[in-house]
Amino acid sequence: MPLAKEQLHLTKDQLGNIQIAAVSATIIARLLIGRLVDKFGPRLTYTWLLIICSVPVLLIGTSQSYESFLLFRLAIGVIGASFVITQFHTSVMFAPSIKGTANATAGGFGNAGAGLANIMMPLIAAGFVGLGVCTPEDSWRYAMIIPGILLLVFAFIYFKYTKDLPNGNYKELGIENETKENTFMLAVKDYRTWVLTIAYAACFGVEITIDNFAPIYFTDTFGASLATAGLCAGLFGLINLFARPLGGIVADKVGKSYGFSGKNLLLALLLVIEGIGIIFFGMTDHLGVAIFLMFLFGMSLKMANGATYSLVPFVNPKAVGSVAGIVGAGGNIGAMLIAFLFKAKAVKFSKDVIDESGVSQTKDLIDYTNAFYILGIIILITGVIVLAVKFAVSNKEEETEEIELNGKEPAVVFVKSK
């Protein structure tokens, strides 16, 4: 993004619009994708999503204006619906007693992909320059070819080596999701769905924000190099490999003893810690301290991601896909609202910098310090609100029993179609 910003002469308002477009497309896609999964199964739905979304990834490098870049970024955002397919797939593939851990682990690997991209993309861009394929200014364009190709490769792998269900695919088995009720409305009417939606907006929404804004924040505010900024942002994403699964594991253990309310308490505490960490992150002016604080609140928010989706399969076993879709969309709604905040609170300033040739030049930079500070306060308040909300029935034995009973029943019932 720093390279694209400079070459396309993107303003702070345009950058804000691009980030909003990136997450807004995902909101709609996540709400709709559940119906496609119910009808065609996760295998075909996922395969086509990967194929279709490879097109804007491959073509965004041809952008010559803000408008075309914005359009391609909007289209790329659709692939964020893949998360709902993953959560549906793990929910029907794994035993109820470990659904939370399975969902959190799969989600953790998904988020770690963003971290790996932040580390690898600058290196891939530098590789094209080193091979003499392009100039440094155009390197971001060529670098985008690699993830586009990888999407097509994994579409083939997913189609060939996965099944919709443990015993086969939808078409082969002639089965359908059995429900006489509107699963979407079941999810909408359950207040616990909205508690989790708000919570996910406050944790996953922040994660998307950090993935998108951290590279620019570190380069413009602290003067870090592109490689250093990419490494820091990349490591932030990679800790999902253990942080999000840890949240799911801890939440499952807490749930066995304290039921839904125990899991809700854990989720609220993680959000409070996250908010405090972001507040101090926005206040510090030292790069080393900022990196430390980023990992501190990063651990909390990623564990909160896992804790949220340890609850999702048990909110309403008849509407797992709809609950997962609404909560997942909530994460992107949070990211979109945060993007508006960053757009409004961004401060543009100029600074003299020395380039690689030793020549001093004035560059226009953007500072998001105030935005991070305000965001931390909002997340802290959200954690307190989630803590105050009554998440389940008052009797803790009933809560524990409810989880145990749900754990003995399949989240989705499949029957042969007539």
UniProtKB/TrEMBL annotation:
Transmembrane regions: 15-33, 45-63, 69-88, 109-133, 139-159, 193-210, 222-243, 264-283, 289-312, 319-342, 371-393
Domain of life of the source: Bacteria
Signal sequence, start to end: none
Localization per record: Membrane
Topology of the protein relative to the lipid bilayer: Multi-pass membrane protein
PROSITE patterns the UniProt entry points to: MFS (PS50850)
Alphabetical keyword list: Membrane, Nitrate assimilation, Transmembrane, Transmembrane helix
Main localization (coarse): membrane
Domain named Major facilitator superfamily (MFS) profile: residues: 1-394
Gene3D superfamilies: MFS general substrate transporter like domains
Keyword check for Transmembrane: yes
Keyword hit for Transmembrane: yes
Similarity comment: Belongs to the major facilitator superfamily. Nitrate/nitrite porter (TC 2.A.1.8) family.
Protein name: MFS transporter
Lineage, broadest ranks: Bacteria, Pseudomonadati, Bacteroidota, Flavobacteriia, Flavobacteriales
